[in-house]
Amino acid sequence: MSGVWGEFLKLSIFGESHGKCIGIVINGLPAGLELDLHHIQKELGRRAPGKSQLATARQEDDAFEIVSGYLNNRTTGAPLSVLIWNKDQHSRDYEEIKDIMRPGHADFTARNKFAGFNDYRGGGHFSGRLTAPLVLAGAIGKQILSQKGIVIGSHILRIGNIEDTRFNPVNADPEKLLAMSDKPFPVISEGQGQLMQEHILQAKMEQDSVGGIVEAAIVGLPAGIGSPFFDSVESKLAHLLFSIPAVKGVEFGTGFAVSGMRGSEANDEFTLGNGEVRTMTNHCGGIQGGITNGMPLIFRTAFKPTPSIARGQRTVDIVRMEEVEIHIQGRHDPCIVPRAVPVVEAVAAIALLDMIIEKDGSSWKI
Amino acid sequence: MSGVWGEFLKLSIFGESHGKCIGIVINGLPAGLELDLHHIQKELGRRAPGKSQLATARQEDDAFEIVSGYLNNRTTGAPLSVLIWNKDQHSRDYEEIKDIMRPGHADFTARNKFAGFNDYRGGGHFSGRLTAPLVLAGAIGKQILSQKGIVIGSHILRIGNIEDTRFNPVNADPEKLLAMSDKPFPVISEGQGQLMQEHILQAKMEQDSVGGIVEAAIVGLPAGIGSPFFDSVESKLAHLLFSIPAVKGVEFGTGFAVSGMRGSEANDEFTLGNGEVRTMTNHCGGIQGGITNGMPLIFRTAFKPTPSIARGQRTVDIVRMEEVEIHIQGRHDPCIVPRAVPVVEAVAAIALLDMIIEKDGSSWKI
Amino acid sequence: MSGVWGEFLKLSIFGESHGKCIGIVINGLPAGLELDLHHIQKELGRRAPGKSQLATARQEDDAFEIVSGYLNNRTTGAPLSVLIWNKDQHSRDYEEIKDIMRPGHADFTARNKFAGFNDYRGGGHFSGRLTAPLVLAGAIGKQILSQKGIVIGSHILRIGNIEDTRFNPVNADPEKLLAMSDKPFPVISEGQGQLMQEHILQAKMEQDSVGGIVEAAIVGLPAGIGSPFFDSVESKLAHLLFSIPAVKGVEFGTGFAVSGMRGSEANDEFTLGNGEVRTMTNHCGGIQGGITNGMPLIFRTAFKPTPSIARGQRTVDIVRMEEVEIHIQGRHDPCIVPRAVPVVEAVAAIALLDMIIEKDGSSWKI
Amino acid sequence: MSGVWGEFLKLSIFGESHGKCIGIVINGLPAGLELDLHHIQKELGRRAPGKSQLATARQEDDAFEIVSGYLNNRTTGAPLSVLIWNKDQHSRDYEEIKDIMRPGHADFTARNKFAGFNDYRGGGHFSGRLTAPLVLAGAIGKQILSQKGIVIGSHILRIGNIEDTRFNPVNADPEKLLAMSDKPFPVISEGQGQLMQEHILQAKMEQDSVGGIVEAAIVGLPAGIGSPFFDSVESKLAHLLFSIPAVKGVEFGTGFAVSGMRGSEANDEFTLGNGEVRTMTNHCGGIQGGITNGMPLIFRTAFKPTPSIARGQRTVDIVRMEEVEIHIQGRHDPCIVPRAVPVVEAVAAIALLDMIIEKDGSSWKI
After folding, report:
1. pTM above 0.90, yes or no
2. Chain C residues touching residue B19 (CB < 8 angstroms)
3. Angle at C136 between CA D291 and CA B22, to 5 degrees
4. Which positions in chain D touch C158 (Cβ < 8 Å)?
5. Closest CA–CA distance from residue B118 to any residue of chain D (Å)
6. Cα dist. B222→B219, B255, B292 in Å?
7. Which of D1, D208, D238 sits opposite C228 (nearest CB)?
8. Residue D135 contacts by C-beta under 8 Å, 6 or more apart in sequence?
9. CA of D293 to nearest chain A CA: how many angstroms apart?
10. Are C25 and B14 spatial neighbours (Cβ–Cβ below 8 Å)?
């Protein structure tokens, strides 16, 4: 396996939930970039647990330490490495159940892949905690994109059967997109948001968990980013989105629903507005032939419910090879979706930055 | 842009719809593999147009010519290169409309990406015709997988609002999966299939087109293939699936629907059967933590309707910068989905073979 | 194995000496480039055999056919694929000796790597003939570099013990460098060149072969191309140079000899000339810390003698496992070096273009 | 730029000479490997400064800290990350001369590449200190190779004009190779070694430095490792060797000298010994067609003299754009070669391990 991703912007992630630290090495950033450390911390904070009843009570402040590639408050062009030290681990929780395969977790598959030598404590390297370095890289990516006028925003589109209003795919407002990132529970319709939160707390009370869908929009992208086939915007984005633990579906534009339409309805007709070519609808989600067309890039990501639930579940003890019942202890999120929102945005920023560097080169001015 | 994909199995595709030929170079195949050329041709035939009223009337027999890496009916270990020569081109159809951006096509984005130098004839390199080399590589991949007891099958799950029965995610039958590939219109319920075909012909009569969803199942995979994060089974598969033109959504297992479930319902509980660890349900689609668990791998791929329709559509002439109406001439598929079925299977075979080579090395015996 | 090279400019080569064709797919070229086909053919001609007594009498005109990525005399931005069809093969020469390992050839190692399935005819994929596609890609690379004021030239520095004058490392003249490519036997001192040619013919008469050294100089490079460590100019260039069959040594600047110097002598002191930073000497060959410094890039490549010689040699029959004597029939080069000169230049052009695209991006104007 | 290398074994290095730490992330190691931490520290010790008059007086104990991928004394299969914290920095030494380009250093080229934002203290990311992580990865590589019966050894072949005896290319003794790594100044002939050391001390006394050549031999390699062309053993090894700061030449087998031979002399004739195919000579250095032939792999690496010397040197102040004289203060190695020996061995181990994983896969047993 490899924790390395990217062609033009290259990331290398590492670490385990209960190890010394987690971290990331980012290759290919332009030199001379002044990082907004406050913004990075804020983005990490959006992902961090322990802030509300909706999330795990574990306290992880996710303070980060830049250890290379940064001098006098600017990137040097050399690999930028960042560490996030682990704290507040209850490793003992896992010792007793290390041979008992938790349903919905990677315990069984990791054991097969790594011949039983994988770090089993808290999911080890498979932990959702590894998304913190991605959020960090994404925060840097967002900062660069922002300087180019590109804005990313997302909201919780669905929890259980409760749906938020969708983004306007033709005319997404950058201000409103940005505002989403300040909300602890980002939704467009606060009423629906209230119902979603109640739904989560209800599941929590019942020792259960729920999943949901995140919808993201990116505006300000120029036409011409991406490629046909293997380096398409969809391919690169979906590759990273499916790297996020618990993601089981990704769709662009009208997505699965477009497959039920007629061509005459699904095709986005072109028009001229202020001398610019635009489309009247945006079923394609801002991407045609794998390349951006200048319209908002829209996609949705489906998350399964948190697999760690306190309820009894049937499973097997892999050493004794017998069926057992498991009651997962510990502090777990009844719903991972609110904390996943900044992760979705982060990988989108990373994928787009990679494609922009492909186009503009590594020595571009900011 | 790059037409190269893969880490352990490396593909390089090239060609244009109306150029001299299209082709592929496959790197990393084991030496000594006797190819079943008849099977390759059969797979290409499944994708080829001109066979029924449901598809374009263009005649492309897609005869292939192996030009390197093959001696005395066996792979040599050197790059295997295959050409498919183009015939039956009506390039003139495109000359007149080359400045008029076809809605739903890549004309506008390609023009932006390649500064207007892209081959505009029949979509050029963006054409769905480029999936023929993928089918070819996939046929080779299937042959190798088959020798390892791995079987891939797929069917048309939905056309318009007409749905076929789903595969049994826990107990997909390899024989039935294989049988699907012999059907010209692969569905489980022939009755629903009949309705789907009528729906397509209706759209065709109305100078329109329809989209649909393909569901695939892969059985016989051992547990332990894939990796967490960037090299997850979902990431690699989705990367290639979204490389297929017209794909707008991909989901694994229960997919988007799992996001509406409770954890107690979505978690696949483990059980022992015949001394083997299995799951009782298969909402995860055979993948946990990015790695196969030995259960059937299930995924669904959504295709938008064919963008080329004869109906009048509003668009712009990019040179004169004025709004115009376009009536697309030529012979086009009213629905691409039936021809897309073998493409979906092919990229799945390619992705899995890459991950199996990662595990077993390049010098494995067949 | 993989015939794919490159990060920003990606090449995929394929083919065998006695197969249908050899070829290359070039990914990452800018769109809109008008290729000088005459120049490409001229470069291929420099490498082609059959032109003098110094080389093999095989006739290979190496006519090339562009099959994709090129429209209306310009690159489209899509993968550029080129085929060179094989002719004039005496495959029968190899049938008899296919189990007898030719000394100095890859017969034995290829057999081990590919379990005996490698194409044994004329070296198969290991043949020096595979350098023709590299020369072709290099010719395109040179054309782009030339438009940026970068000139590559090289000469035969040594054959046997006969040495040519070296390039002036501080002040290499672009005109003189370019003039080298017009010479059938490129040397600075024609007298030494005459002696070298006599030395080669003498070896040929004695059914033997000789090796030699090629020296190359590249002028007009801006400072700042390349990277420290893994992507250093030396690493990328040496990687490709050692890909050329028969290369056994590569050195930059003063090379091995600099290891015998004192620091006070080897350090290239800086000076100002016309407001430009230059070095007074150029022992580093124009590269410091893996990055160009704006001075001429100088390197030398050592070629072993052609392994195919008519003289009797001791070897083994790998099937019968017995020692035998071999007399290699066929038409072989008594010295590969004159034909290797354009190959050295070609891979240098390819490596530099890759690093320039890294810096400037794929959408740069020409 | 990217600090990432490798296809099957993937390394990511980071850090600066005067930053917080340097480090490495190693991807693709098999799970379950028990590391010999004492051996790793010993290898780091061979590279570390401060141990004799021949080297800089800087004290760097290079203690390493594994922060991920390692549990209960075994690799987990997840990325293995290791940090080496920096100490004993005299950063102030560099503040005054940051605008003055040190001859022979990367100051000028780094400034051009990174628009002046590079870390200038002690060479920053360009520092030879970054070879410590490579030695660490190489120590792990050596441990794995050793379990497969593969042994790497090297010695100082030349300092100034003083030459050591060469390794026997046909019959290198694994015991003697291993013994080399225990010597503080590894040479075969102790008498020549004495002269070399005197030569270095003489240069030091004269405020100067010297270069030299390292020769390495690797025995126990099976035939069939490597590939033709881009993934040849020479290409992969040379790529990494030229990544080492100060390397200006690499040659395999008889190297540059083989270019002066006749084919009848340079060809390594095959023979049978104990039922095994061997060559009688080994001018090719154990590699034919880019693939190992089972004979000892032999190569030589040329290092330039340490560029930091106390003597006055002419250079330029890049800000004031005027010519100045520089006297480099600080504690520098009069000769880097003794400390470079383990680095050469390390990158060789890394390159070979990558190629062995390609052949055998990632899930091989140890």
Report:
1. yes
2. 67-68, 71
3. 90
4. 259-260
5. 30
6. 9, 22, 7
7. D1
8. D43, D44, D46, D47, D342, D343, D346
9. 29
10. yes
Nearest to D260 among C211, C228, C309 (CB): C211
Q: Of B14, B117, B124, which has the smallest distance from its Cβ to C74's Cβ?
A: B117
Per the listing, tokens 């045609």 go with: A288
Rounded Cα gap, residues D105 and C284, in angstroms: 10
Question: Which residues of chain C have a Cβ shorter than 8 Å from any chain A Cβ?
Answer: 7-8, 78, 224, 228, 357-364
Taking Cα atoms as reference points, which of A207, A112, A215 lies closest to residue A159? A215
Position B93 confidence tier, pLDDT thresholds 50, 70, 90? low
Residue C53 confidence (pLDDT) above 80: no
Sign of CA dihedral A138, A143, A145, A149: positive
B contacts of A260 (beta carbons < 8 Å): 158, 160-161, 211
| Residue A87: how many other CB atoms lie within 10 Å | 12
The full 3-state SS of chain D, as one line of letters, equals: CCCEECCCCEEEEEECCCCCEEEEEEECCCCCCCCCHHHHHHHHHHHCCCCCCCCCCCCCCCCEEEEECEECCEECCCCEEEEEECCCCCCHHHHCCCCECCCCCCHHHHHHHCCCCCCCHHHHHHCHHHHHHHHHHHHHHHHHHHHCCCEEEEEEEEECCEECCCCCCCCCCHHHHHHHCCCCCCCCCHHHHHHHHHHHHHHHHCCCCECEEEEEEEECCCCCCECCHHHCHHHHHHHHHCCCCCEEEEEECCHHHHHHCEHHHHCCCEEEECCEEEECCCCCCCEECCEECCCCEEEEEEECCCCCCCCEEEEEECCCCEEEEEECCCCCCCCCHHHHHHHHHHHHHHHHHHHHHHHHCCCCCC
Total Cβ atoms within 10 A of residue D87: 12
Residues of chain D in contact with residue B358, where contact means CB-CB under 8 angstroms, are 361-362
User: Over the stretch A284-312, which tens digit does the pLDDT of each residue have?
Assistant: 999 999 999 999 999 999 999 999 999 99
Query: Taking CB atoms and an 8 Å cutoff, what residues of chain C touch A357?
Result: 361
Q: What's the rounded mean pLDDT across residues A70-75?
A: 96
The arithmetic mean of pLDDT across residues D304-320, rounded, is 96
Rounded CA separation A133/A130 (Å): 6
In 10 A of CB C111, how many CB atoms?
A: 21
Dig out the tokens for C307 from the structure.
Answer: 């392994």
CA pair distance B125, B131, nearest whole angstrom:
11
Average pLDDT over residues B132-157: 97
Cβ distance of A209 and B255 shorter than 8 Å = no
Output the six-digit token pair for C221: 């490079």
Q: How far is residue A320's CA from residue B275's CA, in Å, rounded to a whole number?
A: 11
Query: Is residue C8 over pLDDT 70?
Result: yes
pLDDT digits 0-9 by tens, C241-282: 999 999 999 999 999 999 999 999 999 999 998 889 999 999
d(CA A31, CA D341): 33
ipTM of this complex prediction, to 2 decimal places: 0.97
Mean pLDDT of D9-19: 96
Q: Do B256 and A213 lie within an 8 Å CB cutoff?
A: yes
With b for 16 or more beta-carbon neighbours within 10 A and e for fewer, the D322-352 pattern comes to eeeebebeeebbbbbbbbbbbbbbbbbbbbb
Contact A170, A224 (CB under 8 A): no
Q: Do C1 and B27 touch (CB under 8 A)?
A: yes
- Give me D78's structure tokens: 């997840």
CB pair distance less than 8 Å for D261 and C110: no
Fold assignment, A91-364: Chorismate synthase, AroC fold (3.60.150)
Burial class (CB in 10 A: 0-12, 13-18, 19+), B205: exposed
The reported pLDDT for the residue numbered A58 is: 66
Nearest to A101 by CA among A334, A335, A320, A361: A320
